[in-house]
């Protein structure tokens, strides 16, 4: 009798643990720093929808926008520790994992989004993604935001207007040199701090895309935005190799397909959102959009382009050439 009871008890414990394993869905935490109403925010929401529709009960996706879970500087360390499973940091923030990604920060490098696409989808772009694997990260794809504009407390028409001003930048050494090239003072700060830094006038300006400036209300505390299109802000969607390869064989292809579809969707959003948000900023009348004449824009190009040469050795001449060639 005692033996029967013991067997019954152990069978029920085993069943209970099997049930709980079966019942526990895989959790994917997706951490990012921007608002939901941006190309990256919308891409993350789309990914969640697609995964939970197709893998209902097996995988749950929790999206944490606005640096709620991790900020710029911590997210990849957290990923390698298994505390977050997906992120899409700006390419300007991952030089610690491969310095060459800073090629995307070279000012006035790409003519348009199509050129960026060609470079990212070409052999060099693919190699850059793959290179992150030796640092324990899987590069799952590139995601667009768009071209950056310059905002400031006074109008910036020519490089001389930037002299002595303090600009917040992302953590990229190329961006440091870009602002030094116009005699300005760059300060590396996390995205989550930018609004307050601008509001309190701790800094004079910053560079960002229309969608980031609109969704984070930078235009309410920056009276001038120069439409410079001087550089690109794009992302790399990352997971840790350890987590990604641990996904069961019957789950991973579906998650991966959903992610690729979400990236395509995010890229479509990026194509239109920038112009919509620019119009919304103009309509708000809180910030004046400064349009450069071709001659004024050329002055910025002439001042900033020498930065390319400074990074030739670090980034590789061939890599820079491949990016230039993508303009066709
Ligand atoms: C920034 O820090 O300005 C951007 O990288 C934020 C983002 O993720 O778009």
Automatic annotation (TrEMBL):
<feature type="signal peptide">
    <location>
        <begin position="1"/>
        <end position="23"/>
    </location>
</feature>
<keyword id="KW-0732">Signal</keyword>
<protein>
    <submittedName>
        <fullName>TRAP transporter substrate-binding protein</fullName>
    </submittedName>
</protein>
<dbReference type="InterPro" id="IPR004682">
    <property type="entry name" value="TRAP_DctP"/>
</dbReference>
<dbReference type="InterPro" id="IPR038404">
    <property type="entry name" value="TRAP_DctP_sf"/>
</dbReference>
<keyword id="KW-0813">Transport</keyword>
<dbReference type="Pfam" id="PF03480">
    <property type="entry name" value="DctP"/>
</dbReference>
<comment type="similarity">
    <text>Belongs to the bacterial solute-binding protein 7 family.</text>
</comment>
<dbReference type="InterPro" id="IPR018389">
    <property type="entry name" value="DctP_fam"/>
</dbReference>
